[in-house]
Write a structure and sequence with these properties.
alpha/beta; Urease, subunit C, domain 1; TIM Barrel; 2 domains; four-stranded parallel β-sheet; 17 strands; about 20% strand; binds zinc ion; Metallo-dep_Hydrolase; Metal_Hydrolase; Amidohydrolase family protein
């Protein structure tokens, strides 16, 4: 018989989908790694009991755009990370995945590794119980087109046509990669590759999608400009990162894929750069202006309002790990959704929970009978003030697979 754990005296935020959802008093019964029942006053003779003393239980959070290769003290030097000795580097990776878990994140989707097998090594070590960390949908090295952003091949793999791309995808999938990351647009931060540039083409993306699908994996893309977003949507890409510019064509293409495509904006990253948080690290006001990011931020915020109205699902996530978007501050993304994109706090939380599980292909994201018991316990009501999710002192515990994976040492001495 599997272990039974009863969480009592809790307020439960189920993440059912209502924009005005609030936590309500309930107990949660866990059997093995799954949620068995959610209701007030559950009787469960023989179960281990954890009295949560009025704390809020919500699904563990997720981030759909992670780079666990970037160490806790990462600044900007991708080449140095790529060249680091693998042993010490993997210890850095272990510290990063522990930070995710301790920040309430039980699920992450990789958006490209700097040393090729980082996500896979971390996932395996977590699975074997060697280190602590979230569920990982592993990515591999990013893939660029010859001549495109990253196309010099220094930090990415490079394909010239559909056949080569299919081969690269197959090779990564054979290693166990599940979320492949392709660069199909430029990025204002690299002036010779503006965000509106489109790289690859329909035939290449269709080949990549088909090959990934054959392996039970999926394609994610860096796509900032409208034309690249539209191409991703019509060719079967699952996660579109950034989507900073959305014209009517792009929006229509996204809408047609409302059921099996998600947009992951990385709003906080853009906000932080434009707000000057990166200035001490070399992103001077001149460089920010030259990148076009201020215009992209305005456009992305407008786009997020339109995505919401159209019912296109948004995923929380975005490039955390720079010193101005430090590891451990992941839930700042949710704060920006509330402050800038007009979401309710509950809706912002849904981007990291009920939207995340299905996007990752994992049975998580709601506090609901039958789902995996990946849960976060916090003091206070995050639907009243979403910023409490950023406060380490309020994080009581994190459960993964029905087991306490983190207990706040400041609360439970
Ligand atoms: Zn990224």
């Amino acid at each position: 018989m599997t272990g039974r754990l009863l969480l009592t005296n809790a307020r439960v935020l189920r993440c059912t989908g209502a924009r005005d959802e609030r936590p309500a008093a309930a107990d949660v019964l866990i059997e093995g790694d799954r949620i068995a029942r959610v209701a007030p006053g559950i009787e469960a003779p023989g179960a281990r009991v954890a009295d949560l003393r009025g704390a809020t239980v919500l699904p563990g959070l997720g981030d759909a755009h992670t780079h666990i290769s970037w160490p806790l003290d990462f600044v900007f030097d991708h080449a140095a990370v790529a060249a680091a000795a693998p042993g010490p580097h993997l210890l850095d990776v272990a510290a990063v995945v522990r930070t995710f878990l301790e920040s309430g994140y039980t699920l992450i989707i990789g958006a490209g590794t700097t040393q090729p097998l980082d996500d896979l090594h971390a996932r395996d070590a977590i699975g074997r119980g060697l280190i602590t960390g979230p569920r990982i949908v592993p990515s591999g090295p990013m893939i660029a087109e010859v001549g495109g952003l990253g196309g010099d091949g220094e930090l990415m793999e490079v394909a010239a046509d559909a056949r080569q791309l299919r081969e690269l995808v197959a090779r990564q999938c054979d290693l166990g990669v599940k979320a492949l990351k392709l660069f199909i647009s430029g990025d204002g931060v690299v002036p010779e590759h503006p965000s509106e540039d489109v790289y690859m083409n329909d035939a290449m993306l269709e080949a990549a999608v088909a090959e990934a699908d054959r392996h039970g994996a999926f394609i994610t893309v860096h796509a900032r400009g409208s034309a690249s977003v539209a191409m991703a949507a019509r060719t079967g890409v699952r996660i579109v990162h950034h989507a900073c510019f959305l014209d009517d064509d792009a929006l229509k293409a996204l809408e047609a894929r409302r059921d099996d495509l998600w947009v992951c904006p990385g709003l906080h990253y853009l906000y932080a750069v434009v707000s000057g948080h990166a200035a001490p690290y070399g992103m001077t006001p001149d460089r920010v202006e030259a990148s076009g990011y201020p215009r992209e931020l305005t456009s992305q915020i407008e786009g997020l309002h339109r995505l919401r109205e159209t019912g296109i699902k948004i995923l929380s996530g975005g490039d955390f790990g720079h010193q101005w978007t430090r590891h451990g501050t992941y839930a700042a993304e949710l704060q920006r959704y509330v402050e800038l994109a007009g979401m309710t706090a509950a809706e912002a939380i849904h981007t990291a929970t009920r939207n995340m599980g299905p996007a990752a292909g994992v049975e998580t994201g709601e506090v609901r009978e039958g789902l995996l018991a990946d849960l976060l316990v916090v003091d206070g009501d995050p639907t009243e003030d979403v910023t409490i999710l950023q406060d380490p002192a309020r994080r009581r515990a994190v459960l993964k697979d029905g087991t306490f994976a983190y207990l706040n040492p400041g609360i439970y001495p």
